[in-house]
UniProtKB/TrEMBL annotation:
SMART domains listed in its UniProt record: HTH_MARR
Protein name (record): MarR family transcriptional regulator
Domain (HTH marR-type) ranges: 6-138
Biological process annotations from GO: response to stress
Stored SUPFAM superfamilies: Winged helix' DNA-binding domain
Organism: Amycolatopsis suaedae
One Pfam entry name: MarR_2
GO molecular function, one term: DNA-binding transcription factor activity
Domain of life (superkingdom): Bacteria
Length: 143
């Protein structure tokens, strides 16, 4: 049962998410990344994403929408895109060491800012918040 008088989750979290994204933008710019570029590098660094189609599905983007981002990352030496030898219509993606360094450096700086925000919570509340955020973010859509 919902807590009476509680704002909707989107209302509570929307402002927080906008604030976090605004704090990330200058950090990403310092690393020569856009928000989508950071999302792509994170997906490639964290998992076994191999094709453009699999990447698009993993990050919830249309595969044609990310082509410009992929080209910019490739031009910057942050990813490699190679034709699949088994199907030349398919592009295989791989993060480069430079891409891995850029992503991890940006992530460390972003998380430094998050730590300042989380410092407003007690240790127990911080742990509970992070645990709840992880559980809810990992739930499949519609679950």
């Amino acid at each position: 049962m919902a807590e009476e008088g509680r704002p909707d989750l989107a209302a509570m979290l929307g402002g927080l998410v906008r604030r976090l994204m605004a704090a990330e933008e200058p950090v990403l710019a310092e690393h020569g990344l856009t928000m989508w570029g950071y999302v792509v590098l994170s997906a490639l660094d964290d998992g076994p994403v191999r094709t453009q189609a699999a990447l698009a599905q993993a990050i919830g983007a249309d595969k044609t929408r990310i082509i410009g981002t992929l080209e910019a990352l490739q031009d910057g030496g942050l990813i490699r895109r190679e034709p699949d030898p088994a199907d030349r219509r398919v592009r295989l993606l791989e993060i480069t060491e430079a891409g891995r360094r850029a992503r991890r450096s940006a992530q460390a700086r972003i998380q430094e800012g998050e730590e300042r925000l989380l410092a407003a919570l007690s240790a127990a509340d911080r742990a509970a918040f992070l645990r709840a955020a992880r559980v809810l973010s990992e739930r499949p859509a519609g679950a």
